[in-house]
Amino acid sequence: KCLILAKFRNAGQTCISPNRIYVHSKIHQEFIEKLKIAVSKLICDLPSHKTTRISCLYSKRGFEKVNCLVDSAMKMGAICFYQGMHVQQCGSSYFPPTILINCQSHMLISKTEIFGPVCAIYEFSSDLQLMDEVNDSSHGLAGYVYSQNIKQIFKAIDDLNVGLIAINDSSPSTYLLPFGGHKESGIGSELGSRAIYNYMDT
């Protein structure tokens, strides 16, 4: 449920939307089956309807970018495990909610902000392998950790090279804490009790 909220908020068009979803091999099949059921229940329609959860992207160019990323990934071995139906009334910039499995770190989709309703699933079996791949990115704004193992959670907090981390939650952001990223994900931060100092330089 938290992943659905995090990934499909505003049709995946948020700066903290998870782009790469890593799932342990022990639960991979069960996870993608449950994810497919949850995604298939999302209501896709015009944004003016109160029940709508997924609607059109910000522009035709946005659609073309997402479509290109999905096509490129599939040509390199990714598998489309699920894709919703086209919603005619949403126009040419609508991209249906999609789940890609068998994604790999060398694919363009793993190095680019998707900015669309696409779940790119990466299977892993080693925690060491996982952190090497997760941190192999020029971006570092937000990360999400879903686990019941407290040791794994604190290890992930130490190892992740990102500015914000959500633990078993749908958003890593709160006005009480600084909001900012690492690497190419922005300079400085906002929010939090010290944010006012950014506006006090003279």
UniProtKB/TrEMBL annotation:
Example GO biological process: gamma-aminobutyric acid catabolic process
InterPro entries: Ald_DH/histidinol_DH, Ald_DH_C, Ald_DH_N, Aldehyde_DH_dom, Aldehyde_DH_Superfamily
Keywords per UniProt: Oxidoreductase
The protein's name in its UniProt record: Succinate-semialdehyde dehydrogenase [NADP(+)] (Trinotate prediction)
PANTHER family (UniProt xref): SUCCINATE-SEMIALDEHYDE DEHYDROGENASE, MITOCHONDRIAL
A GO term, aspect molecular function: succinate-semialdehyde dehydrogenase (NAD+) activity
Residue ranges of every copy of the Aldehyde dehydrogenase domain listed in the record: 3-201
Domain of life: Eukaryota
TM segment ranges: none
SUPFAM superfamilies xrefs: ALDH-like
